[in-house]
Amino acid sequence: xxxxxxxxxxxxxxxxxxxxxxxxxxxxxxxxxxxxxxxxxxxxxxxxxxxxxxxxxxxxxxxxxxxxxxxxxxxxxxxxxxxxxxxxxxxxxxxxxxxxxxxxxxxxxxxxxxxxxxxxxxxxxxxxxxxxxxxxxxxxxxxxxxxxxxxxxxxxxxxxxxxxxxxxxxxxxxxxxxxxxxxxxxxxxxxxxxxxxxxxxxxxxxxxxxxxxxxxxxxxxxxxxxx
Length: 227
Hints:
- The chain is α+β, with helices and mostly antiparallel strands.
- It is built from eight helices and ten strands.
- It folds into two domains: 3-75, no CATH class; 84-225, Trna Endonuclease, Chain: A, domain 1 (3-Layer(aba) Sandwich).
- The termini are far apart.
């Protein structure tokens, strides 16, 4: 399979099995070489298993395969340590999948995928927590999630993934097409960078404002605030 084919397959599986996936609080994501089934439940946030893409690809009735993979995921042990960022990520994705893909902090931004990993020109793997898209603005959203206000790290992360998009315009144009969004080869220059992190009295953060990084803040229970 070509790299983009995994993303096509993950999207098709999500659409074809929407009812059961929402019920079980799981969804498919793709990487360049595989697909995975990921939990978005409170009990096992972002816990996942790799799936056999070939099995899903060659059958029109994937229900039996899906049921087995859901069972495998259910018996997989959750980490014993706290995972606040995974809990935040899981909550956001679960909300989006139950609300026509709209993200909870901005209904205009539609969820595309999560944990998307791409190699940059130096061969280093670059990952974004959530990739979104605003059809009204015709812009991709590179979104990083933080349970703490780690500004230096998040700036580095969103900038690195922005550069990956600029380096791979054809791939991201094809990715948007899978989700029904029209795009062009200059999609690399149509990017918004954003962070989701805890609210503080000093919000909005002036450094982020100066860097044109959008800030979304939340309080306990993932209640999002308008800045």
